[in-house]
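**Folding the chain**
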Amino acid sequence: MQPVAPILVADLLSPLHAELMTLLRSLTPAEWEKPTVAAPWTVRDMVAHLLDTDIRRLYYGRDDLPRDASEPPPATYEELVALLNRLNAEWVKAARRISSPLLMAFLEIVAPQTHSFLQSLDPYAPAGISVAWAGKAESANWFDVAREYSEKWHHQQHIREAVGAPLLNERRWLEPILDTFLRGLPHTYRDVTAPIGTTLLVEITGEAGDRWTLLRDEGQWSLHRGAPDTTTAHLQIAQDLAWRLFTKGISKEEVHPHVQIFGDEALALHLLNLLSIMA
């Protein structure tokens, strides 16, 4: 069992984008209008959202342009989520006037610039944006970039599901996603009290799966890679269920019958509350 290490995925952004563009070029007009799991967004809406996230990343990050001074910054996590939801909805509504060929053309211009910017960052320097869903007030660039990669990956999964295309579930793509999502576990368990030395072994099964251990230290929980000699609780979950659960693609009530639990059931089941998106 070892402490978790930084997740370095900046070099995966460009090949992930190439997979997206290959898919989009193959779609029929009817497929662009298919609904996604993020109802009421269609495939075209989801592509517009991906374009928006790249534009915002360059606006605030690379180009360091000012934020809207007429709107006070959010004071709480809930206010931040509400702000992001509003900005997303405003953009998607306006982007419905952009045709699918134009969306692809814009992505071809903007996305590579975003990838170059993110690849240029010192992965260990402080990020301009913290990973709030993990309870972080400050984050290193590597975590911010991993979060960005996870956003692009799981939205592309939504598009692929909507049109019946193969999902990107190979270990190359999905293992860093699962590792990123589980970094939210200490925050998810922040209010769960337990004796020092309590351990929760999380085993994700499948090609991209692995084992992670949540350990109760003095006054806090810490995440490790691997398994301890003894466990207080042990939860097994399939990789396809795991990423969907952590991104609100499936409810914990739907997942519960499909997980295996050994040991302290209440401790293990709290994992089903993990959300690795802003929600």
User: Anything to note?
Assistant: The mean pLDDT is 96.
